[in-house]
């Protein structure tokens, strides 16, 4: 696990410049991850085609955490400004988005939809994360959870084909070797 904690964030950092652009229809949801016996919140967003927009682990599920997540997602260079954001019924999302609109991070025309069934894409994408984290029986610290989840999400992006390479198609192992400058 020391390797995961060390290289998970590094892989995430190194693939960011190679990510393909996402579209402007966002689906946002939060799922639960157990850290030190308590549930923490993993905010995740995908576009309408299932490409990962961004993710963030948070101790709270409130307006400040939602605003931090959207600010992080909007600052990523591979993401487009959303035309529409589909949310679940969490009451913290609309005020956070409205604050970002007031601060001019988002255009006024951004449509906010709070519909449970349109979020099935992100709900299904949670399955992959849960499949890996469930056998771990939780994390010991928030920092190790954050680092491990960065690595899991980065590898998930590579496997989904979100990392672009113009020369030829690469497997996940070849991609990791390439971004670390290792010979294959």
TrEMBL record:
Residues 13-184 form the Integrase catalytic domain. Signal peptide: none annotated. The keyword DNA-binding applies. PROSITE patterns: INTEGRASE. It comes from the Bacteria. The keyword DNA-binding applies. Keywords: DNA recombination, DNA-binding, Transposition. Pfam families: DDE_Tnp_IS240. Gene3D superfamilies: Ribonuclease H-like superfamily/Ribonuclease H. NCBIfam families: transpos_IS6. Involved in the transposition of the insertion sequence. PANTHER family: BLL1675 PROTEIN (PTHR35528:SF3). This is IS6 family transposase.
């Amino acid at each position: 696990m020391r390797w995961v904690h060390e290289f998970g964030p590094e892989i995430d950092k190194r693939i960011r410049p190679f990510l393909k652009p996402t579209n402007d229809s966002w689906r946002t949801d939060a799922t639960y991850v157990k850290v030190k016996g308590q549930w923490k919140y993993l905010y995740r967003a995908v576009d309408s085609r299932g490409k990962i927009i961004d993710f963030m682990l948070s101790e709270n599920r409130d307006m400040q955490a939602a605003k931090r997540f959207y600010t992080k997602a909007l600052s990523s260079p591979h993401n487009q400004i959303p035309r529409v954001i589909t949310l679940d019924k969490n009451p913290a999302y609309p005020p956070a988005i409205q604050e970002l609109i007031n601060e001019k991070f988002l255009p006024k025309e951004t449509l906010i939809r709070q519909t449970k069934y349109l979020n099935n894409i992100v709900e299904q994408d949670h399955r992959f994360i849960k499949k890996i984290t469930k056998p771990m029986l939780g994390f010991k610290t928030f920092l190790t959870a954050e680092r491990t989840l960065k690595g899991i999400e980065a590898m998930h992006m590579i496997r989904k084909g979100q990392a672009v390479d113009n020369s030829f198609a690469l497997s996940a192992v070849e991609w990791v070797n390439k971004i670390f400058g290792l010979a294959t």
